[in-house]
Amino acid sequence: MRIDFDPETMGTTPFYKLLTSVIVPRPIAWVSTVGQDGAANLAPHSFFTVAAVAPPVVQFTSVGRKDSLRNVEDTGEFVVNLAPEGLFEQVNATATDFPHGVSEFEAVGVEQEASLRVKPPRVAGSPVALECVVHSTMGLGNSTVVFGRVVHAVIDDEVMVDGHAEITRLRPLSRLGRNEWGTVGEVLDLARIRYADWEGQGPERA
């Protein structure tokens, strides 16, 4: 038996909670920006993914008019920092609705370091940072999707294994429903099957 849900009759907030409880886990873009006043902003955004490969473009969504979005529109730059398990409480704290102009870096006590190609600082304790310039933005209802072209990336050498960023060393956080967060559990390793090799290699059928 299935339960039906109608977004038109449920309303925005209840259906939003439903969506975020079933579209899981969601990777977190810990976005750092700089405002026109020079204050550095840092906030987690869990609507985040890769948008294109050539050129490399990532995207995150701002639900409402948050400081991250305002700064991106004003300056055209941002940094996506990986949200690591070891900084769990700091990541959560930077989601606090601090007044405009207050730096989450300072308020929460997150150490920052200079970026190489853009003005917004990187999170010093994050093992990965993607420095981005704005490619474009798209308004969708009460939200804005920000597309950023990655102009530089840095990764801590301690998380690299044979040229590959090893997931068990990255230890990224993810968002689930309600106040739930996800960490790296069991990792499954299974290569894709080429069509030429498909015969006898596909999943068993009942």
TrEMBL record:
<protein>
    <submittedName>
        <fullName>Flavin reductase family protein</fullName>
    </submittedName>
</protein>
<keyword id="KW-0288">FMN</keyword>
<dbReference type="Pfam" id="PF01613">
    <property type="entry name" value="Flavin_Reduct"/>
</dbReference>
<keyword id="KW-0285">Flavoprotein</keyword>
<dbReference type="InterPro" id="IPR002563">
    <property type="entry name" value="Flavin_Rdtase-like_dom"/>
</dbReference>
<dbReference type="InterPro" id="IPR012349">
    <property type="entry name" value="Split_barrel_FMN-bd"/>
</dbReference>
<feature type="domain" description="Flavin reductase like">
    <location>
        <begin position="21"/>
        <end position="165"/>
    </location>
</feature>
<comment type="similarity">
    <text>Belongs to the flavoredoxin family.</text>
</comment>
